[in-house]
Structures are given as C-alpha cells and as structure tokens.
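Narrative of activities, Objective 1.

The group set out to show that a structural description can be obtained from nothing but a protein's sequence at a throughput compatible with the screening campaign. Below is one input-output pair from the validation batch, recorded exactly as produced.
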Amino acid sequence: MSSRRTAVVVGPLVAASFSAVLILSGTAGAEDGGPASSKGGKAVDEAPAGVKLTTLLPEKISVDNGSKKTAITATVKNEGSKDSGKIRLLVVGFDGLVVKNVEGCSAIPENGLPEGSNSGFACAVDNLAAGKSKSYAVDATYDLSKAGKICLPVQTGDGKKTFWQQGPVPFGTTNPSPDAPATPLLLGTDNKPVSPGGKELAETGPARDLLPLGAAGASLLAAGAAGMWWSRRQSGPQAD
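Output recorded for this entry:
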C-alpha cells in the first residue's frame, strides 16, 4: 500500500447537478446473473450501533460482443436492526468497465473521481430501514480486450466515512467467446481476453490480491488498509 496520505472520500459532488443520462437501450442483461454476492467487500469505518451495511453484485453478467453493452444490478442492504440514516452508494468503474448510467443517481464530476477510475455515479439514500435493501440498474460498457473492475462504497451522506466497500472487484472470463453474440463474465474473475492473434489468451487482469489503483499502484484493501483507496484531492471537508 502506498504510504502517501489517502482517504475514502471521493471529492466534492456537486449537489443537484449532473442529472442522470438516458438509459442505454439494447443492453445485454444481468437477468441470468444468478444469486447476488458481496464478494470482494469488507467493512471499513465503524457503522452506528445496530446498522450493518453491505452491497451485492450479480455473480454473472453478459456483455454484448457487438455493442460492448452490459447491465449490472447494484444493491445496498442494511442487515442490521436499526435504520441507517442518510447514506450514499457510489458505483465506480475501472479499466475496461465504464459506467454509463445508474438509474436515479448523479454522475460524479471528473475531478472528483477516485484515482485510476474512469467513471462513477453517486446514489443518495435518505434512509435504509433495518432489514431492507435498495437496488439500482447500472448501464455500462465493457471492453473485452481489457480487464474490468467495479467498486461499490457505501458512505455517510457527506462522504466523510465509508462503512462498506465492495471492490474494486473484477468481472471477467477465462474462456472468451469472440464469435458468440455475447460473452458471460463472472464476478471475482480476472479477465483473460483473446490476444490480437485470436489464438492465445493474454492475461491482462492483475492478480486478485493486488489490483493496482491507477498510477499510484496502491494495492486494493491490503490487510489493515481500512479501505482507503483513493487520494484526497482537497484538504477541506467534503460535501454531498
């Protein structure tokens, strides 16, 4: 883990701006995704007593080999016995996975994105009752010639604390099928796309336990890292 100062806040999110863009049509669906999973997630800052926040992603998604479109369902859940209070869910894309829209959420300004990410949306949750969950439809594209990762942090409404962070966790396949209409990808699998020659597999995904975060090369959620994975861009307090 890089020794330079890091923090879990994303940077300023401009309130009431960046209205959700149009949902992509013709997207390959996640309906065949099977059970949702919290794979690649861990608790970070301590949540209020009685509150237990987690996230879920589908075990399997499908990428259209022509359009590169895919659909992902991102879910935030309160498994505790008390209401969460005001929180927010971030949906952030890395490498070959680009988040195009999250229904009902606002785009994160480019200068507020986590280091190494290419796209992101912030979803405000006024309150999540005990035992309840809320799901968001995520439209994305996936460049199958690259590795692709997604990250779901759950923060306080002001972004000063992160209670839970899933990822950046990869979606990928070890058995690409470029001639098929779509390619199924599995959660927690490093993508091994077909090489330019089309004969051999070229491993482009980083090792599961050493996902570099941009130029800083910081390891993902190393033991004791408390999930602090993007650089503080301003020293002042962060706003929603």
